[in-house]
Amino acid sequence: MKLKLNTLFAKALVAISIALFPPLVSFFFSYRSSEQHLRARLLDDLAVIADAHESYIYLFLEGLKNRTVDFSSDGYIRERLPAASRGDRVVQRELTAHLIRNKKPVDSTLDGITLTAPDGIIIASTDPTAKGASLAASESFLLAKQHGPSLVAAGPWILVSMPLRKGFNGELIGVLINRFSLSRLQDVLTGAFIRNSGAISWNAGKPQSMDIYLVNQERFMITSSSTRATIDETSPPVVNTLPVTRCLSESKEVRTFYTDYRGIEVVGASMCIPILRWTLVVETAADEVFAPPIRAMRRNTLVATAVVFGVLGGLFFLFFRTIVDPLRRMAVAAGQVAAGMRDIIIPVKSYDEVGGLARSFNEMAMQIEHRTEQLRTSEEKYRTILDNINEIIYRVRIDAGTLEQTLEFVSAQST
Fold first, then answer.
1. Helix (H, G, I), strand (E, B), or coil: what is residue 273?
2. CA Rg, the chain, in Å?
3. pTM score > 0.70 for this model?
4. Which of 92-106, 267-281, 350-364 comes out lowest in average pLDDT?
5. What span, in angstroms and rounded, lies between the C-alpha atoms of 187 and 179?
6. pLDDT of res. 304
7. Measured between alpha carbons, how far apart are the two ends of the chain, in Å?
């Protein structure tokens, strides 16, 4: 069925379609803009969380360094270290006992304390079996000897080393190396530290799927995430994801959507810890934080579109019922009147202009019928007169322009 564009119905349909186009375009661009804004806002929020936890890490590392500096200033250690370095076994046993009894209990994250001679030989340690071993080639010893206080990541530990010298920048008399466990840092990242400290709302508003963890330069996860209870030190998860790759290869921090180490689509942000070549990752499942608001936006957009379609459709239906349909009826009725039907009456259903037009049409049809009946009656009378007259009849015609009169023969009748 082809739609004729010269009909009022077709023109109204085209007008409705044109009226629908701007709101549909507006809904589309509004949806796209809102989606992009939501993405940007979500990434910004994760970046803020990552930045905050990066601060926690640096504060944690600074605390470890301060602890080591504090130990290195111990007068008891400084006084006995030269003698211990020369091989005095009694002094070495005294230093070992001092470390075990007075230093190690100070910090629960302190896994071990080692004192070396200037040549790297261990002369005292909380681990008695380590005495006499050489650390001359170890990274922590060399960094402390050459550059001063240093931090080195070593599996699940952090080694903080501090050179011990005579006076200020004097002769090296030994190196102090503290080995700290990452358990406290893990508690900080997972929120356990805040919880254990008595915080009431330590985990409020945090998505259930959110992971916050550290990855070392070998791409192994070194702290437990919120979705893993513990890390198996013998086979830690390998995290070869976009944030880790960008951080290790380009020293660039990212915030984007990607697939995590479990193959799940996530949205995340990363922070680089260059001093230890770590990557801090904050990520959460995209389905949990992004899909619900997107579904709500789509639902609202569809509802708004349906409302607009419904309103315009209702207006079109009303326009069709009150204007187009009555006009079509009048057009059909006018054709019927032209064909000779005189008893046509259009129902008047309103008092507006269309209703007035219908009433005028009905009055016109009645007048036509009345005048037609009068003409019919007059013709019958005229014909009766002509049929019954017994004389010759002429008709006088007067020219309207010249006023000349002429006689026109009509009929002749005789009895």
1. strand
2. 50
3. no
4. 350-364
5. 18
6. 76
7. 69
